[in-house]
Predict the 3D structure of the following.
Amino acid sequence: MAPKAVLLYVPADKAPTIHGQPLFALDRKGTTINQPLVISRAQHPISRALISENALKVLYRLKDAGYASLLVGGCVRDLMLGREPKDFDVVTDARPEQIRKLFHNARVIGRRFRLVHVRFGREIIEVATFRAIPRDVSEETMRPEQETGEEAEESGDETPIEAPDHNIFGSQEEDAVRRDFTVNALYYDVRDFSVIDYVSGVEDLKRGVLRVIGDPESRFREDPVRMLRAVRFAAKLGFKLEDSTAAPIRDLASLLTTVPPARMFEEVLKLFHGGYALETYELLRHYGLFQHLFPLTEKSLEREEQGFPVTLVPRALANTDARVNEDKPVTPAFLFAALLWESVRQQTGELLARGMNRYDASFRAADAVLREQLRHVTIPKRFSVPMREIWSMQDRFERRAGQQAFRLLENKCFRAAYDFLLLRAEIGEADAALAEWWTRFQAVGDDERRAMTAQMVPAPGTGQRKRRRRRRRPSSAQAPRHE
Ligand code: ATP
Ligand code: MG
């Protein structure tokens, strides 16, 4: 039978506590009471043919040097489910310096919890040392469990060790129970090809259940991002949140406001660019989490247009999912443009009603919405600039006389802005004929394009007259100030 998930007895003086709660059980010798379930090769579906060659190279090199050598986390979970893993994470009992010495293509990253990245061309295999449970919360770094290392500061190989290793590195059991969900804490041991399970993760995989390791409330308080991860995995795997895991989420959702916006940005991309954005979005709203990521969006969704709920966001997310699943590129600029558009539109409308001209109203509304959003989720400039361009091009799509349409076509954001126009047309917000005009304009040759624009009457105050006077006016980015 599978071992019971994490017992909660620890000698009082040694207890690794999290908000005053012991997290897992140690016996008097300091080893866990739980015996892991070991599933032999014959009884699980993970074959080496399914593991990336580079990950295998790393695993064997560690094993041959006499170290523990295992796959862990999402890759084991996905392989057990017959899915293709996104990436392969390796854990070992070797220390970062020892790991680095085994590979010429390796570097140590991260400051407090150091990891090793072993690079093979475009593939990076991340190798971590078994990690201890933090002895108290203050020992945790700001991004406590950030495993990807993507943003971890490159420390260079010479960086001095800041904390004593015994506080940071632990046993395999500890490494298991400090992970977030039972299904994310399975190991594949390359020494005997077994799967090792300390927390009944295999049982939960079979039942399609996502369960927090330890006490859900404490673990969500310890790192509120785990609530987002819960929803993300539930959507991706089609799993149900186990009752006690789901129970505290609504009450704790507001803790997301304590997460640094830069980390939230990383999480938002994982939530919406993983191929399951629509389900994820619905679950986020169901659990009251979405309002803490996109408060303005949540508010704008409550409004209805002519009796119909606003549908641009779900459509955009469905589009994004389709693109991800066809391996087409997606950009955060488009994602954020869609998520925030309704708020921009509503605020623009309010400013217009107060007598502001269209250009200024759109500009101000975009500014205000972006500023408010940045308090919750960072949007790096390289995405917020094109996002605003996508928005402002929506107005410019209507002005097609003279050279205007040609100039728009050359804009770097044309493709994304055009896709956005199609989306708006689909939900009946933009004129379908306008969208068709642009579809045709791209498809036809130069002569035909000129004929198409010749039929356009310049809007008052823009277009032909102005263009003739200022022939060399440089860029379409400077939209005319008045309509
Ligand atoms: P994905 O398929 O999205 O990569 P993953 O499970 O591999 O899913 P990662 O973010 O790559 O997720 O993290 C790798 C592993 O690290 C997780 O499976 C989990 O064991 C552990 N982990 C990551 N983030 C946390 C966290 N916030 N708290 C506890 N454990 C975490
Ligand atoms: Mg992963």
User: Anything to note?
Assistant: The two ends are 73 Å apart (CA to CA). The first strand starts at residue 17 and ends at 18. The CA atoms of residues 263 and 354 lie 38 Å apart.
